[in-house]
Batch of 3 targets.
Target 1
Amino acid sequence: MKRTTRRRFIASGAAVGAITIAGCADEDPEPEPEETPEDDETPTETEEEEADVFEAGYEIWAADQGTDTVYIYEPADDSGEEYDLLDEIDTGAEGGHVPHMADYSSDYEYVAIPCTTGARTLIYRAEDRELVANLETGAGSHFAGFGPNDEYIHVDVIGESEIVRVDVDLENEEFEIVDEIEVLEDETVQEAGIESGSPICHSYDKSGRSIHTMGPAYDDGSLVIVDHEEFEVDTAFPHEELPTNCGTMPHVTEDTFYLTAGNPTPTDDDGNVIEEQEDEAVGEYYVLDTENDEVIHNESTRGVDAHGFWFTPDGEELWVLNRETNDGVVVDPDTHEVVDEIDAFGPATAPDPDERDAPDIFWGSPDGEYMFVTLRGPEPQSGDPHAATGVNPGFAVIDTDTHDIVTTVQPDPDNDESDLHGIGVRPTREYDGFNLPPF
C-alpha cells in the first residue's frame, strides 16, 4: 500500500488542451481530403458532454450523535447549494452509540470515530466504509486523533479522565490499545495544581507532542502536553494560566498553537439566565508558543462559548465560532489578532437561545470555497443545553469569501433526536493546501 504521511496534499494542475476545428473548403472543385491524425479529430458531442461532467472532489462525513449515524455527502455541482447523500453508517450496530467526532489518517484512507456513550472508538476504511477496528477506549471517548506519521492514535476519554494510546499499523490494518495516562494522577499535572477535569480534545505541535485541553466545564479548563515518544506528561498549565476547555489547532507553519475557552451564560434550573452572573459567560482564544511553552496572545471571540475552529486551506485565515451566540471571528495567523467577524453560522438567529442555531464543529472544503459547520439539534446529546440546543440539526455551508450561509443540509430534519456534532472533509482527488492537522 503506497501512503504519504504528510498532511499537506499537492494539487494536480489539470490543464485543458486547446482544440482546433478546421473550416470548410470551397465546394467546387472539391479538394482531395487530407489525412487527419487521430489525435486531431474533432471531439464528438458525447466527448464534450463527458468533459463537462462535474467532479465532486471531496466527501463530507457528518456524525449525528442523536441517531448513531454517520452521513456521507458530496457536492452535486459547483454551486455549493446541492449535496448528494452517498452513504450512511450505522455506528450503533457496532456498539458505537453517540458518535462524536471524526479524524482521518494523513492519507485520508482511514477515519477514527470516538463514541462517547458507546465507550469505544471505531476505525473505518474510508473508501469502502468497512469497519477495521472496534476499540473499547473507555466511557466518554470524546476525540481520537491520528498522530504524526500515523503511528498511533491518542484518545481523550472524559469518563475515565484518561488519555489512551493506540498503536497503529495501517499497512496491516492493526490497531492495539497499549497504554493510558490517568491525567489527574500524573505528578506533573498535580504539581501544576490541576485537581479536576478530563481531557477533551487535542492536536499535535511541530515536535509531535499532543496538546490536550481539559474540561468539559470552563472551571475545569487547563492544558496538558504529552511527550509522544515517552507517552508521559511533559508540561501542564493550570486554569489560572490557560483556562482552555475545548478546541485545539496548530499553526500551519509556525511553532504556535491555538486553543479555545468557552463558558455558556449561567442559567438556573429552569433554564433562565441568571442576570447577576451574565458577566461569567466566556468566549476567548489563546495562542501558545510551543517552542518555549509560553502564552503569547489571548483575545475575545466577540461572543459566548468559543468552541470549534478551522484554517482556510491557504493558511491565511483561522475561523473561530461561538456556540451559544451563533457567531464568530476570523483570526490573522500572522498577528494572531481578530481581523473580521462572522454574523451567523446557522440560519436561525433569534435573540432567544432556544430559538437560535448552535454551531459546533467545522471543517473547510479543500478548494477553499466553503466551511462546513455542524448545527446542533433541539435535544442535544452533549454540552450545556443553554449553549448547545439548536433549531436546524444538520450542517451549514458557509462561503469563505462573503461569510454568507449558502445552504443548510439536514439529513433528518423532522427528527428532534437528530443532533449533528462531528464533521470531517475527505478529498477524493488532489488539492493544494492545509486541511488536516497536524500540518
Target 2
Amino acid sequence: MFAKTISTTAFQKTINRQFIRTMVNAKAIVYSNYGIPSEEIKVHKYTIDSPTADGVVLKTLAHPINPSDINQIEGVYPSRPQLAEILGSEIPIAVAGNEALSKVVEVGPDVKDLKVGDWVIPSFPNYGTWRSHCSGKESDYIKIGSPEGNLTKNAAACLSVNTCTAYEMLTTITKLEPGDWFVQNGGTSSVGRFAVQIAKILGYNSISVVRDRPNIEEVKQELQALGATHVITEEQCGSRQFLKTIKQWIGNGQVKLALNCVGGESSSNLARKLSPDGFFVTYGGMSKRPVTFPTSLFIFKNLTAKGYWITKNNFKDLDQKKHVVKTVLEYFRDQKLVAATAEETEIDWEALGDAEVLKFYQDSLQRSKSRKQLIVSKD
C-alpha cells in the first residue's frame, strides 16, 4: 500500500509539472472596433493549455507591420478576420496581423510533420499574428524548416506576402522565357526589389521605374546590384524621347509583362512599354489615383489588363502557396535572394507590463509610416 501511495504521488507530481509546463500565459494585440489603429488596439491577456492531439503550441519569433495589417484595423481592407469572442474575451475581438514567423514549443501526440524547434508560418491570411504565443492544428501552419542555414527571421517572417507576390506575378500571369522583359513601377518597394531578384534568377530582363530623388544614382546602383537590368525615373518613363533608348535596350526582345503598384499617369506610361499581346497587372495603388489605360493600346496592341491579389490566391489554392513558399525558401537558403530591409525592434512580452506593450505597438505603428517595421520577440 505504501509503495502504491508513493507511486500515485509521484505520478501526480509528474502530471502537475506537465500541467504547469504547458500552461502558457500569452498576450496579444487586439481590436474590438475599426478605426485609427493607434487608438483602437489594446493588449489582451489569455492562457494556452496543452495542445490537442493534432495541435501545436507556438511562440512568435518575429512579425512585420504591413499596410494590410493597418487597413484591417481601419476596417477598409477587403479581407479581414471576423470580430468574435475568442481567447477568453467577453467582447468580440480580432488579433491584428497577417504574417509571422513562429517556433513550435509543444506538439500533440498525433502531430506527424512538426517537432519542437521547427519554424512555421501561418497557412492562411487573417490569422492574427501580433501576439506572444498561439496554438492551433498542425494544418494551420506551413513548416519552413529549422533555424539553420542562411534564412533570417526577417526573410522568414515576411515570406508569404511580398516575396510570394513577386514570384507568382512573374510565373503565373503569362509565360516568360529567358531573355524576355518585364517593366514595373514602384521599383524600390519590397515587391519591386524581390521581382528584379527573382527575374535575374529565372533569366528575365527588367526595367524598374522609380521616383526621381537627390540620390537617384545611388538608388539605381542599389537596384542593379539586386538584379535590375535597367532603372529609370518616372519622368524618363513618360518621355517620348527616352523611349528611343528603351527600344535600343530591348532590341528584338519582347516586353510581355508590366507590374503596376502606383496607378495614375505612371500606369499609362508603363502600359505604353508593353509589346503586342502583353499583360498589364495591377497589384497596388500607392498614388491613390485610378489606373489609366490608353484605349488605343487595348485595340491595336491587344493588351490584357488584370488585377492580382495574393490573399485571394492563398485562400483558393493552399498547395500553390506551399509550392511558392518552398521555392522562394530555397532561393533564400542559397543566398540568391536578399531580404527587404526593415527596422527591427525587440519586444520582451514577459518583462513589459500591458501599458508598456501597448505603447510599444503604438510607437511601432507611427514608425511604420516612414519605414518597414519588424517586431522581434526576445528569446
Target 3
Amino acid sequence: MEKIYVVEPKRLGKIAPEIYSVFAEHLGGVIYDGIYCGEDSVAENIHGFRKFIIDKMREARIPLIRWPGGCFAETYDWRDGIGPRSERPVRINWWNQCDGRYEPNQIGTDEFIDFCRLCGAEPYIAANMTSTTPLDIRDWIDYCNSPAGTTTYAALREKNGHKEPYNVRLWGVGNENWGGGGNMTPEYYANEYRRYAEVMNNASAGLELISCGPNGADYGWTQTLMDSLSTKRGPMAGMAVHYYCGSAGDTINFTDDEWDQLIRQAAKMREIIERHWSTVISYGMENQAKLCIDEWGCWHPGGTGPSKGANLFEQQVTMRDAVVSALTLNIFNQNCDKIKLCATAQLVNNLHTLFLAHDADCICTPNYHVFNMYKGHQGGDALEAFATDNDVTVSASEKDGALTLTAANLSCRRDIELDLTVYGKDYNSADIISLANDNLRAHNTFDAPEAVAPTSAHIDSFDGRIELARGSVMAITVKLK
C-alpha cells in the first residue's frame, strides 16, 4: 500500500486566504448574464446579481475578486462606469473583434464593489496603464478611497449613492503589458511602472500595488524587471504571473493520453513558481515581489458551454479540469511562502469556470466543488506532506487543532489505496469529502446540475486508510491530539 506522510512539526508558511481568489472580466458572458442578470430577471437576484452565485461564493469563502480585466482593463475608462446607468456610454469592448460585442458599462466601480460586499470578498482592481495617464488612475483611487467630505471625487461618489470610502487596497499596475497591454519590453515597463506607482501610491494610504510579471515561463521578463526595479525601487507589494496550462484534445471527449498530457502541462506550475521566485530572491525583492498568480487554469476550445459558442471562450468543466484545479491548489499551498494571492480565470461562463449561467439557470461546475472542498486550508499553517505514489498530489495544513489534507489521483487509469501517517500527532475521527465519477468526462448541465457532485462521510475511528478513485479529489479533516 502506498503512503501519505504529513510532517506536522515542519511548517512551510501561512496559506494566505487570497490564494483561493477568482477573476471576473468584461468578456463574453462573465459579467452580463453571468454574475449580473438584472433586477427584472426571472433568476433570483440581489441588486441584479445572481443570488445563487453570491450564496455559493460565501459558502466557499472566496476572499478576493479581480476586476475588470484582463485585457479589457487596458482600454477601460473607469469614468464610463459611474453615474446614472441611463447616461453611461456604450464603448467598444477590447474583445469586440472576437465576438462583436460592445460594453454597455452597466457594471462599473460602484456595482463591482457592491458585488464584492454581497459575496463577502475584497476587491482587486486592475488599472489601465496602456491608454490612460497616472493621473487618471490617481483619480480612480481618489473616487474609491478618499473619505467623505474631502475631495471632489469623494463628493461624486457620495452623489452616486456611496458616502463612505471603499478602501480598495489591491491595485494592479497594468495587465499583461508584455502582450495586449502595450507589447512592452520589460525595460520599458519597469520605467512606466515606477512612474505610475509613485503617483498611485500617493493617492491613498495602505495601497498594495501589483506589478506586471511574466507570461508563464518567460524567465527573462522577471530577470530584467527585477534587475531594473531593485536598482531604483518604487512602491510594490507583488508581481503578477499568468500561466494557463492550455488544453489537450477535446474539452469533453478527450483520450486517456490527452488526460495525461494536460496533467503534465498543469504540473509545470511548480517549476514556474520556483524559478521566478529564485530570481526574485536573488535581487532581494522577496518583500516587494511576492508572486500573484492572478490568471491560471485550463484553456480549452470554446463552444461546449450552455451558450453553444455565443459567449466567447465559454467551455464545459469535466473531472479532468477538477483534478487540474486540485493539483494547482496543492502546488500553491506547498509554495505558500512565495505567494501573495492567486485568481483562477474565470468566475462564470468562461475558461476554467466555477459557474455556468443563463437566464434563470445557474449551476456549479466541478471546479467550484474543489474550491469549496479546499477552503479549510485558508489561513492555515502549511505542513510538509508527500505521497509515495507519483500519481498522487497532496497538501496539508493545520489550523485551530485540525489537520486539513487534500489529495487528488492524477491517474485516469487506476484507483490508488493509501495509508496516512502524521508525524508528531495522533488523530481519531475524520470528515471526508470526495469528488469522483466513474465517467471522467462527466460534467454538470442545466438538466443535470449534480452529475458531478461531492459526497461526504464522517468516520468515528479513522485508521488512516484512503481509497482514491481514478481521477478523483478528496479532502480530509481530522482533529489532532
